[in-house]
Amino acid sequence: MKKRKKKKLKRGIRDILIVTVLVIIASCFGLFLERKESLANKKVKVEYTTVNTRKESNASLIMVGDALIHGTVYQTANRYAGYKGYDFKPMLKHIKPIVANYDLAYYNQETILGGVELGLSTYPMFNSPTDVGDAFLDAGFNIVSLATNHTIDKGEKGVLNSRKYWNTKENIIAAGSYSSFEERDEVHILEVNGIKYGFLSYTTYTNGLIVPKGKEYLVNVYNKDLIKSEIERYRDKVDLLIVAMHWGTEYMTYPTSAQKEIAKYLADLGVDLIIGTHPHVIEPIEYIDDTLVIYSLGNFVSSQIGVERLTGLMLGLNIKKEEYHGKVTISFSDIEGTLIYTDRNNGYIVYPYNELNNNILNGYKNYYDKYSKVVTAYSDKVTVKSLEG
After folding, report:
1. What does the pLDDT look like over 46-90, one tens digit per residue?
2. DSSP string of 310-356?
3. Pairwise CA distance, residues 291 & 264, whole Å
4. Which candidate, 214, 240, 245, places its Cα nearest to that of 227?
5. SS3 category, 269
6. pLDDT at 326 (0 to 100)
7. pLDDT at 344 over 80
8. CB 73 within 8 A of CB 302
């Protein structure tokens, strides 16, 4: 009897607990439905916090024109070396401290560096010692244009010797002539301060010399299809794309219609910076949309006659890369030119104009005014360093 009562009590307690749990569940479910209905009938304000992802990187670049190594230039270098080899470094002693202030430094190797084994030669079929390259690398230059009207002056052997020399150098780009199609087709990208850059080089002239059929890699001769395909291979892989163009008419201080047409074509393909050489004199600088175009830097080192041909432009600028929401933009600022002069009568030493005096170049102040106006003729975004420094 007692056992039956105990079982009855346990069942009663269990039933009460079950009922209680069911009541609690039902209440919670009811509250949930009521809350859901309430939220459905209300506009819920959601606040988002926007994170500014803008990132900026900067680098500096300086550019000079033609290393046009006439016989009297390499003979002077031979004298500097005590007639045992060739030393071009004294010619650059006033330029080297300036280049040291920049991350990137460009020059145009006008004459082929085929080396002494091929026999050195001067105008009209040049061949220069590789010591020229040694001096420019020592001065801090690290971007070298090799596509010129004199690239194949010594034929295939000259180009192969040149490439053999440049391929031993690290952390530089030397573009425009190659030892094979495979070498030409390599996408060569370097980086400075977080900015990835590529460099391409082309010439519109070969002085009537025929590039051997099937060996068009020896020198990049400009044509629209070639340049378009190469730019397309680089454009999405780099932040900054630089193209060197050997173009124009010699000794003309303004660009031809052909130069302007090519510049517009390259700008439309997305090139950021176009560096022009070949005229051996300074030509103006301008923007085509967002593309900066330097039509001609003039000579850097040469033995040409006349102040106009011994005066060149050394152009410096700041490169700014901005990244925002996955988009990269490149812009240029502080675009400042320095006029330079090669003293052909006293050892081919290159001077900035602000280090000249009338003993080195009589009337240099008047020449400064004349050539400064050429540089800035097309753009008010470009300045020329004053004679006061």
Report:
1. 444 445 578 999 999 999 999 999 999 999 999 999 999 999 999
2. HEEEEEEEEEEEEEETTEEEEEEEEEEEEEEEEETTTT-EEEEGGG-
3. 9
4. 245
5. coil
6. 84
7. yes
8. yes
- What CATH number should be reported for the domain holding residue 134? 3.60.21.10
Backbone φ and ψ for 185, nearest 5 degrees, come out as -85, -5
Distance CA 117, CA 131 (A): 13
Q: Report CA Rg, the chain.
A: 34
pTM: predicted TM-score of the whole model, two decimal places: 0.87
Give the per-residue pLDDT at 21: 47
Q: Is residue 22 part of a domain?
A: no
Domain containing 63: what range? 56-384
- pLDDT (0 to 100) of residue 282: 98
Residue 11, in any domain of the structure: no
Task: Determine the residue type at 230.
Answer: E
Three-state DSSP class for residue 277: strand
Q: In this model, does residue 175 exceed pLDDT 70? A: yes
pLDDT at 3: 42
For 110-122, give one letter per residue: b (16+ CB within 10 A) or e.
bbbbbbeebebbb
Mean predicted confidence (pLDDT) in 188-213: 97
Q: Which residues, listed in sequence order, are joined to residue 213 by a DSSP beta bridge?
A: none
Query: Taking residues 198-204, what's their average pLDDT?
Result: 98
The torsion angles phi and psi of 28, rounded to 5 degrees, stand at -65, -40
Q: Is the peptide bond before 124 cis (omega within 30 degrees of 0)?
A: yes
Report the distance separating Cα 98 and Cα 88, nearest Å. 17
> Do the bridges between strand 327-343 and strand 311-324 make them parallel or antiparallel, or are there none, so unpaired?
antiparallel
Judge contact between 247 and 220, C-beta under 8 A: no
Specify if 6 maps to a domain: no
Tokens of 48: 């988002």
For the chain, the domain total comes to 1
pLDDT band for position 365 (cuts 50, 70, 90)? very high
Q: How many CA atoms lie within 13 A of 252 on its CB side?
A: 12
